[in-house]
Design goal:
The protein is α/β, with parallel strands linked by helices and about 475 residues long. The chain folds into three domains: about 180 residues, NAD(P)-binding Rossmann-like Domain (Rossmann fold, 3-Layer(aba) Sandwich); about 180 residues, Rossmann fold, CATH 3.40.50.720; about 100 residues. The chain is about 45% helix and about 15% strand. A hairpin with a 2-residue loop joins strand 14 and strand 15. It binds nicotinamide-adenine-dinucleotide (NAD). Nicotinamide-adenine-dinucleotide binds next to helix 5 and helix 6. This is proton-translocating NAD(P)(+) transhydrogenase. It is a multi-pass membrane protein.
């Protein structure tokens, strides 16, 4: 089998998807590993190191003819188009934000595995690249704050006097946030943290930081992730956080909600209230930012505060970021191979099933399928259903004698039963107030139709029974 390791083409990306340490076992297993020249240089793996591990180093295209392609950032659509049908790709695919890339993978007939779709279950921990890379970014963002802060992080008691420790406030205590807390603690800062998920409080405290109890209602979505806050709850949270932000020497924000734009936790007014020399590092800058006005890749001054929109944070530490990522990729690849080392995709396997983004010319991941299908296709499908429904409804009503319209109610009952089920499902899943209101309206209207239909049908039947009785 020919396994290709690409040189990342996105600006700012310095990681690599396979290192000599993960290439060597593949070569020993009898695979041909082809590495794009220079792919691992920033990660401290030069071409010779790959050659020593048994790989072939190629100047230029490695995709053509590859059975398996290992990458970090999503393949560019043009690159995905060069894949042969049935080729397997493993890497980040950004399915929520890069529909063109997903379509290109689908149209190429590739079987793509997206690292961000690997389920967060115990068995998949060794393949969880979101976690391994968040570890890197959480560590890195504290260093970014520390080098910009014109003060020490730790307490110093010296003959020349006592220097108090810096106060670091971390917002969002997921994997990156917890690593930021741990790193800031190691550097000796006094650390405070806040997260909407109540389960994070104990984790924060176990790291020696103070969990801020803002006295707000707690919110936790499914799978241990946060839910998007309603605007009112988000506003109250910002107001409650404002005094802590104002007192912090360094503010680090890491909050995210899967598949959504990063929540706004800190307004410009809050940043303007921070003291001289303060530093803000927004790890969520690339997905919209937790801090108002932040721009990914830019550092700007907001009154006293230096605000850093962190970009490519994991790539800032390409050696260790790649070491962890390459291992995640190798572990996922191993799951796709049988004992003889041949590709054997078991789509019934929970991890393989969840991580498989495209396969056999189709998008397998349902939420992405709607998006990658293209809005036009989706809109056309909905419009077709609507037009057909109107046509069928019109034909049924128009072609039936008006005296029989009321008995038609019984048929409508069945349809409204389905509508009611759909409305309940939509209401249960929605995360926005507008969705909830519309869902509840749909539930009420469908219920009225359903109950009304049964009542009228019942009366009709009574009427017919009465007639038969009189006869
Ligand atoms: N293998 C596993 O079981 C495994 C591995 C990694 C993470 N996890 C869990 O997954 C969950 C998500 O971790 P993640 O690092 O991917 O999270 P994430 O990157 O999706 O979000 C980062 C943090 O931001 C927080 N957040 C979101 N909106 C917020 C708001 N408005 N205000 C304050 N905080 C807000 C979230 O609660 C989360 O803790 C955690 O519970 C983590 O423990 C499980």
């Amino acid at each position: 089998m020919r396994i290709a390791v690409v040189a990342e083409r996105r600006p700012g990306e310095r990681r690599v998807a396979a290192l000599p340490a993960t290439v060597a076992p593949l070569v020993r297993a009898g695979h041909e590993v082809v590495v794009a020249s220079g792919a691992g240089v920033a990660a401290l793996a030069d071409d010779d190191a790959y050659r020593a591990a048994g790989a072939t180093v190629v100047d230029g295209d490695v995709l053509t003819g590859a059975d398996v392609v290992l990458h970090v950032r999503p393949l560019l659509p043009a690159d995905a188009g060069a894949l042969r049908p049935g080729a397997v790709t493993i890497g980040f695919a950004s399915p929520a934000t890069e529909p063109d890339g997903v379509r290109a993978l689908r149209d190429a007939g590739a079987t793509s595995f997206a690292m961000e779709l690997v389920p967060r279950i115990s068995r998949a921990q060794s393949m969880d690249a979101l976690t391994s890379q968040s570890l890197v970014t959480g560590y890195r963002c504290v260093l970014e704050a520390a080098v910009r802060l014109p003060r020490f992080f730790p307490l110093f008691m010296t003959a020349a006097g006592t220097v108090p420790p810096a106060t670091v406030l971390v917002l969002g205590a997921g994997v990156a946030g917890l690593q930021a807390i741990a790193t800031a603690k190691r550097l000796g800062a006094v650390v405070q943290a806040y997260d909407v998920r109540p389960s994070s409080a104990d984790e924060v405290r176990s790291m020696g930081a103070t969990f801020l109890d803002l006295g707000l209602e707690v919110l936790e979505g499914s799978g241990g992730y946060a839910r998007e806050l309603g605007e009112d709850r988000a506003q109250r949270q910002r107001e409650a956080l404002a005094p802590y932000v104002a007192k912090a020497d360094a503010l680090i924000t890491t909050a995210a909600v899967p598949g959504r734009q990063a929540p706004l936790l800190v307004t410009s007014d809050m940043v303007e209230a921070m003291g001289p020399g303060s530093v803000v590092v927004d790890l969520a800058a690339e997905s919209g930012g937790n801090v108002q006005g932040v721009v990914a890749g830019e550092t700007r001054q907001v009154r006293h505060a230096t605000v850093v929109g962190l970009q490519d944070a994991a790539s800032a530490m390409p050696a260790d970021a790649s070491r962890l990522y390459a291992k995640n990729v190798a572990n996922l690849l191993a799951l796709l191979l049988d004992d003889a080392g041949a590709l054997a995709l078991d789509l019934d396997d929970e991890i393989v099933d969840a991580a498989c983004l495209t396969h056999a010319g189709a998008v397998r991941h349902a939420p992405t399928r709607l998006q990658a299908g293209g809005d036009d296709v989706t809109a056309t499908a909905w419009l077709t259903v609507f037009v057909l429904a109107v046509f069928v409804g019109f034909e049924v009503v128009a072609k039936v004698s008006s005296t029989l319209h009321t008995p038609l109610m019984s048929g409508a009952n069945a349809i409204h039963g389905v509508v009611l089920v759909g409305a309940v499902l939509v209401t249960g899943r929605t995360e926005t107030t507008a969705g909830l209101v519309l869902g509840l309206v749909a539930v009420v209207l469908a219920t009225v139709n359903l109950v009304g239909g049964f009542v009228v049908t019942d009366r009709m039947l009574e009427m017919f029974r009465g007639r038969e009785g009189r006869r």
